[in-house]
Amino acid sequence: xxxxxxxxxxxxxxxxxxxxxxxxxxxxxxxxxxxxxxxxxxxxxxxxxxxxxxxxxxxxxxxxxxxxxxxxxxxxxxxxxxxxxxxxxxxxxxxxxxxxxxxxxxxxxxxxxxxxxxx
Length: 119
Hints:
- By secondary structure, the chain is α+β, with helices and mostly antiparallel strands.
- It has one domain.
- The two termini are 25 Å apart.
- Strands 1, 2, 3, 4, 5, 6 and 7 form a seven-stranded mixed sheet that branches.
- The longest helix has 13 residues.
- It contains four helices and seven strands.
- β1 and β2 form a beta hairpin.
- The relative contact order is 0.19.
- Helix content is 29%, strand content 31%.
């Protein structure tokens, strides 16, 4: 789950953490936080970044133990006005991962004002 007591989520060598980008379109343009252990911490950072000139995003990063960081899969889920379910469904590492599905459900509950974006 993406609950308050969650640290790194590990399943079969898969480690899921959260990312927060000040600019969801170009992560290098602004502050970028990675390795965030809980959705609550990510949401707090995200809320602090809102109201500026860019559109912040909360993402999920999947890392397989024993692989290089450059092999990680990262996808922004909470962006602008919505929660991007369409992109989750397009990326096999995300749509087939129970940890991601749990995290997305928690994001939907945490951000009820956000529109669900489908394909």
